Amino acid sequence: MPSTSAVPTQLRQFLLDCAARLQVLGDDPKALEAAEALTQAVADSAARDCPATTVPCLSSIHQASDTALSRQVIEMSPSLNWIPSHRLTDNGETAALMRADAMLDLGGVIAGLLYVGPGETYPEHEHEPQELYMTLSGLASWRHGGNTDYEDIGPDRCFYNKPFDRHGVRAGKEPMLALYVLWDFANAGLPSSASRSS
């Protein structure tokens, strides 16, 4: 397990690695925009005092090892601040969020990880800020981008949700792990310190 003092450095590097991967994967200008926003936010970030926490569903996180980025998450996982989702009432039995912006001051960017246990569902929802997801591990069915149907999406893909696009995910036989990035709150009519998340 990484030392507590090493976590901000490892988390910054992980987020920069994700931003670099978004630039490679991004066939949508919004992916490049999210990558740029994330890169700038991480470059300017300061560590926050945020304790490591875990939730029950993470007992299967070791299975989320499809990509080099997901393996970085597995290595850091015990030192990260995982929380139950406010969209579920099961106290983290089926899904978890890791708010990177709780551990690093990312200014006007909200970024983190969504983990959904094998065979579990993260409920459909919508919110005002735009959001980009990059899948890190697991084949899952996603509703995204204004579509009403679910689409099977594997690891190492990215997709964009415009403001108020309804979206959700159903994990397959393996856990699903994805990065999420919300940015440009000023254009959404929200303060940059908006406390919304996936």
Structure description:
Strands 1-2-3-10-5-8 form a six-stranded antiparallel sheet. The relative contact order is 0.19. Residues 188-196 have low confidence and may be disordered. Helix 1 (7-25) packs antiparallel against helix 2 (29-43) and helix 1 (7-25) runs antiparallel to helix 3. It is built from four helices and ten strands, in the order αααββαββββββββ. It has 198 residues and is of the alpha+beta class.
Mean pLDDT: 91
The number of helical runs is 4
Q: What is the number of beta strands?
A: 10
Total number of domains: 1
CATH architecture: Sandwich
The CATH homologous superfamily corresponds to Jelly Rolls
Helix percentage range: 10-25%
The CATH topology assignment is Jelly Rolls
Q: What distance separates the N and C termini?
A: 26 Å
Radius of gyration: 15 Å
CATH first level: Mainly Beta
Quick overview:
This protein is an alpha+beta fold and 198 residues long.
What layout of secondary structure does this protein have?
Blueprint: H1 7-25, H2 29-43, H3 68-76, E1 82-84, E2 95-99, H4 100-103, E3 110-116, E4 121-125, E5 130-137, E6 140-143, E7 151-153, E8 158-161, E9 167-171, E10 176-183
Antiparallel strand pairs: 1-2, 2-3, 3-10, 4-9, 5-8, 5-10, 6-7, 6-9
